[in-house]
Design brief:
By secondary structure, the chain is of the alpha/beta class. It has 22 helices and 22 strands.
């Protein structure tokens, strides 16, 4: 080869070398561009001769977004990038990777959540570097967390729900040797929904949740487990006395006035308590025990706290059985009405009567109204019961009139649920028309606490009833929440003073003063007063001296069947 040929070869070699260099630069630029175009993050970790881990690459849009690029981190250690404390987590994962294991993990950086996979890379089983890929799962984590929260919390109050309660109880059982379950239910909450609508009902639930939250100690947690049902767990060794003190505070707080839509009304609460492990060792059994105790409170007058006792199971099952029997008694006409005369204090003559429902069970005999009326109210059977009593009382009154007895006004008790119905006056009109009874001879009695639950609607209903010609009375006055302003607005004819005050007028000076004040108050509003539960002549003398209008009680007559009541109607004798 001559000199010129050698020169030509050299030129060609230089040209090819330059082309290869340019191609290498272009490949590197293309690689970098492709890596930069990656949405996620790709990085490499090598192990230096001193045994330290160092980053050789950090690429991808995600890397740029968090400021960790190859330019910034190449050759740097995890300590230099993440700090001495933060690096410990990553170094542990890298050690596993260099041992040949594929590692996946979730971690957090700059407020984001990442999911990263480390893949060992090398030749002949020797790991020379780790190739990591990471994706941002923050949005997914947030969505998952939100879904989990929604599944375990009540949407209205944001309190943990029944599912969360059962989950938490399994943890509590493992962590505590004793704890308490307080089951709280709002009394007659359905009336709020019926009277004001579900939007107002939701507001009341939120308000009650806030009241309960304010009374839940740090050792406890509040759950909403049903429409108007709440459970509080108290972790630790609480004595029955401590639980009762706490429960009484809850009952008092729930009964405070509620101001909504420019109106004032009242809601009360009943409580059942069960304690671990004395009452039950399983979470489901413990809740069931608390529920049984709660039902016991409601069936015994509401606004009470009851601790679970084993015998309550038997009583509760009997109550459930009694509910079915009561429905059957109404449908098969097994109930009856007794009548208690209302007597004029001044003359001693009968001036009307009160119709009282009685139930003689075919197997259990006479069942007290104090036992079956609460069941009827809790189960909704009270509507059927009220209808039956009203219709039967009107029919019986008309029967007596048709037989020639002088007509007497007959009083019928009406439940809170009925008096708050918008169509109740129309129902009364229809029954009067059906039985042919003159409205002048019907009196509707409502309890003080029932008209205070939805006062404005009750007043409208009472005005409609009065327009029909029906008389109206407030029963059990003095035991509820009435104010003087409301009493002025009630379109009533009679005020019935509860027997709890009447029985103490001779022995309790405060009761005597209260009764005197009630009589004077009624007189100021031109309302006649009926004293209930009069059993002694001396009490009657007190009433006469203080110018009470009428009385009822065993001093004159206990409630009697219709056939016995006829003897009073026919004789019309004066009783002193």
């Amino acid at each position: 080869m001559n000199h010129s040929d050698c020169f030509s070869v050299s030129i060609r070699l230089l040209i090819e070398t330059e082309k290869l260099a340019k191609r290498s630069v272009k490949i590197h630029e293309d690689f970098s561009q492709r890596m930069d175009a990656l949405i996620n993050l790709v990085f490499k970790v090598i192990k230096a001769e001193d045994g330290s881990f160092r980053y050789s690459m950090f690429e991808g849009r995600l890397a740029q977004g968090i400021g960790l690029t190859t330019k910034n981190v190449k050759g740097r250690t995890p300590e230099e990038v993440f700090g001495s404390d933060g690096s410990l987590f990553y170094k542990d994962k890298y050690s596993l990777g260099f041992s040949g294991e594929v590692v996946s993990y979730k971690h957090y950086y700059q407020g984001r959540t990442f999911y990263t996979t480390l893949s060992p890379a090398g030749i002949s089983g020797n790991v020379e570097e780790l190739i990591g890929s990471a994706v941002d799962i923050t949005t997914y984590e947030e969505a998952t967390s939100k879904i989990e929260h929604m599944a375990s919390h009540d949407p209205l109050t944001d309190l943990p729900n029944r599912m969360k309660l059962h989950s938490d109880l399994s943890v509590i059982i493992e962590s505590f040797s004793s704890f308490t379950v307080i089951f709280c239910n709002l009394d007659r909450f359905k009336y709020v929904n019926d009277a004001f609508g579900h939007f107002a009902g939701d507001q009341v639930i939120q308000m009650m949740a806030e009241r309960l939250s304010s009374l839940t100690p740090e050792s406890g947690r509040l759950y909403r487990v049903g429409g108007d049902e709440f459970i509080i767990t108290l972790c630790g060794d609480y004595s029955p006395r401590e639980v009762r003190t706490h429960g009484d505070q809850i009952i008092r707080k729930l009964s405070l006035p509620i101001h909504s839509f420019g109106k004032q009304f009242f809601i009360t609460g009943s409580i059942g308590v069960a304690q671990y492990p004395s009452d039950a060792s399983k979470s489901t059994d413990l809740i069931m025990c608390a529920d049984v105790a709660l039902q016991y409170s409601k069936m015994n007058g509401r606004q009470l706290l009851s601790f679970y006792k084993p015998e309550m199971n038997r009583d509760y099952n009997q109550l459930l059985s009694l509910e079915g029997d009561l429905r059957e008694a109404i449908s098969k006409n097994q109930l009856s009405l007794y009548y208690q005369p209302k007597v004029d204090v001044r003359t001693g003559y009968i001036s009307g009567m009160e119709a009282l429902v009685r139930w003689k069970h075919p197997e259990k005999g006479m069942i007290s109204p104090g036992e079956f009326i609460p069941i009827a109210e809790e189960t909704g059977v009270i509507t059927q019961l009220d209808d039956w009593v009203l219709r039967e009382a009107c029919k019986q009154s008309q029967v007596w009139i048709d037989r020639g007895y002088a007509p007497e006004r007959i009083a019928v008790n009406v439940s809170a649920r009925e008096i708050q119905r918008r169509d109740y006056a129309e129902k009364v009109r229809n029954i009067l028309s059906e039985t042919l009874l003159d409205p002048r001879y019907l009196e509707i009695e409502v309890t003080e606490d029932s008209v205070m639950q939805n006062t404005e609607q009750c007043i409208r209903t009472m005005q409609d009833l009065r327009a029909l010609g029906v008389s109206l009375s407030i029963d059990d006055f003095g035991t509820g929440y009435s104010s003087l302003s409301y009493l002025r607005e009630f379109p009533i004819h009679y005020l019935k003073i509860d027997q709890a005050f009447i029985k103490g007028v001779l022995t309790e000076p405060s009761d005597a003063e209260i009764v005197k004040a009630m009589i004077q108050l009624a007189d100021a509003f031109q309302i006649e007063v009926v004293a209930e539960g009069v059993e002694r002549e001396e009490v009657l003398g007190f009433l006469r001296e203080n110018e009470c209008s009428y009385y009822q009680g065993y001093h004159f007559s206990k409630p009697v069947p219709a056939e016995e009541m006829e003897s009073y109607l026919s004789k019309k004798e004066k009783y002193q």
